[in-house]
Every structure is written in structure tokens, then in C-alpha cells.
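S.,

Sequence below, as promised.
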Amino acid sequence: HIDDAPTLEEGQPVPSTRVGRAFGFASLGVGLAAGTVAEAASRILGSNTNNEHSYVTSDANADRLASHLCRMRGAALKLGQMLSMQDEAFLAPPLARALARVRGSADAMPKYQLDSVLMEELGPEWREKLKDFEDLPFAAASIGQVH
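The prediction came back faster than expected:
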């Protein structure tokens, strides 16, 4: 147990099936499309005067992309992390800010999902096989988290 280590909050379940991952990408696409339409409507109606970036790379869409990538983890998160290392001239500022967040974090797996995975991998008495285990991780990355 590391007393000074920060812990992460539980996130949404990590998609663990092909259907779950496909749904995650589909919902991201729908969310980005809806965000683009909302941004365009906002600019046309004059309630948003920020015309520096395209409709697609709005702050809301950039945040939506980062949140989905952090939840999806795996290859999706790795792709976001690789994009975040591009030259600032290559990415719109809202997208660069959001992808910088992706580079530094991933959502923590919820406790029930963590218990299920560890039970499947280590057996029903998995806690008794470990000297110490913190339920909340102090780090999470694209393919794992540290407890």
C-alpha cells in the first residue's frame, strides 16, 4: 500500500467485447456528428462567436473524443496518445489540448469489472493469493492499471 500515491476514480466499464468496442466507436461517431451540428447551429444563430476552428474541432467535440478514448482504452487510447505527440501546427488547439489529456490518463475499470477479470484470471479466491490489494488503482493506462 502506497499512502502518498493518488488514486483514480472509477470510470465507466472498459469495453471487453467486439460488440462493446464497435458500439463505443459508433457512439463516438454519432456524438461527434451531433456535436458538429450543434456547433454549426450555435455559430449560425450567433450564440457562439468562436469561429477560430472548424465545426468538427470544437472544444466540446475535442472533449468528447478524449473522454471516449480514455474509456475505450487499448488500441483506441494508443492511437489518441500517438496523435497527441504531433506538432502543434498539425492539430487544432482544442484537439491538441484534449489529446494531451489522453496522453496522461485512462479511466479506471469499475470494481465489479475488475473483480470479474481477476476472478476469471486468478480464480474465485484471488484476493487470498495476494499479500495486499487496493481496489482503486493509482495508475491506469491503455492496457492495464496498477493497484
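The beta strands are 139-140, 145-146.

Coffee later?
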